[in-house]
Amino acid sequence: MAIPALVGLPGHGKSYSAVELFIIAAITEKRKIVTNIPLNIDNLKRDYPDYDFDGCLIDIDLDKLKTAGPEAWRDPATMPPSALYLLDELWKIWPAGLKASNIPPYQLSFIKEHRHYLDETGREPDIVLVTQNLEDICNAVRTMVETTIICTKLTAVGKKGNFRRDYYEGSVKGFQGPKSKFIRSDHMVKYQAEVWQYYKSHTKASGNVTAVNNTGVVSATVFNGLGFKFGVGLLVLFVAMAVWGYVKTADDVEKMTQKKPIERPAMPATVNARTPQPQNQPKPTPSVSSSYRLAGIYVLPGSSIAVIATNDGRSIRIDATKHCHLDIEYSCDFEQQTVTRYSGSSGSSLSVPKDSAG
């Protein structure tokens, strides 16, 4: 998979998207994961008892990795082949302004030649970068990004429990990409407890974390401002006047053009015996699947792959762009059934996945 980057301000959905789009799918496929995103291991072990968290989930320290030698970067125990590398705050290793000539060759090789680091089955590793802004990362690493996913919290429009994901081709600096690189958007992503229970968002806090109260922020959004309310009032008045004017004009025209009815001789009554037309039968709505569950979706440039888990421990990959759609969350149509993250049997174990993309 090409290198994607999750970008956005703190609290705008980067960690949530990392867990929802990448980590859950990797756990379902029993892949090794190397990450420095703080996860709630107890909740993950409860819901995914068949995954070997002690042997497959590797917590990495970027400060130590930065000063480590080539042996650490090539050690399969800590940097295993074919793993999912989901790395947050990459500026700690490769800050902006760092020249490629000043990056150790084994570090540069990890980014530029990671697709050659295969396991015994021939599977290559995947790298996902997570950062507030790609401008914070040096050019040598930034240019390797093939897809930029910008996360934006919708507090400004009064939706503090939602955020938007915008997908762009290539590396995009800042928080709004050019239209020429735009791919698509997930317009209204809602924070679901089934996802955010798996990670810890306040990494700097110690002990019990108290959530920040955004009530004051929301009350100052565009929907609650005096200008917005005044504008809505004017709009309602304008629409009411327009409707009244249209109705009055139509009534006057009808009176001017009205003619007296012409009397015609009565026609003999006839029986209109028409053959009843068949009614259009509504298409049956697919039922929610009891056999399949949506484990996750891999986002690729121009396409997406959905991973579906079965009750007997298998995984199936299908083309998400053809079979899946987004309402409040993703759902897929598979074998005349609706497959969601909460259908089927939760936490089922998987065997070797098969491809069914079409």
Question: Could you give a short account of the major beta sheet?
Answer: 8 strands, mixed
Alpha carbon gyration radius: 28 Å
CATH architecture of the largest domain: 3-Layer(aba) Sandwich
Main sheet strand line-up:
3-2-4-5-1-6-7-8
C-alpha geometry: globular
Number of strands: 16
Q: What is the N-to-C succession of helices and strands?
A: EHEHHEHHEHEHEEEHHHEEEEHEEEE
Total domain count? 2
> Which parts are unreliable, with pLDDT below 50 for 5 consecutive residues or more?
202-224, 347-358
Note the total helix count: 11
CATH superfamily of the largest domain: P-loop containing nucleotide triphosphate hydrolases
Distance between the termini: 19 Å
Give an overview of the whole structure.
The relative contact order is 0.14. The protein contains 11 helices and 16 strands. The chain has helices spanning 14-28, 41-47, 53-56, 62-67, 70-73, 105-112, 139-142, 193-196, 215-219, 226-257, 320-323, and strands at 3-7, 33-35, 57-59, 84-88, 126-131, 145-154, 159-169, 182-190, 287-288, 292-300, 303-310, 315-319, 324-326, 330-334, 337-340, 354-355. An 8-stranded mixed β-sheet has the order 3-2-4-5-1-6-7-8. A 4-stranded mixed β-sheet has the order 9-15-14-13. The chain has 2 domains: 3-201, Rossmann fold (3-Layer(aba) Sandwich); 287-355, no CATH class. It is globular and about 90 Å long. The longest helix has 32 residues, at 226-257. The chain is α/β, with parallel strands linked by helices.
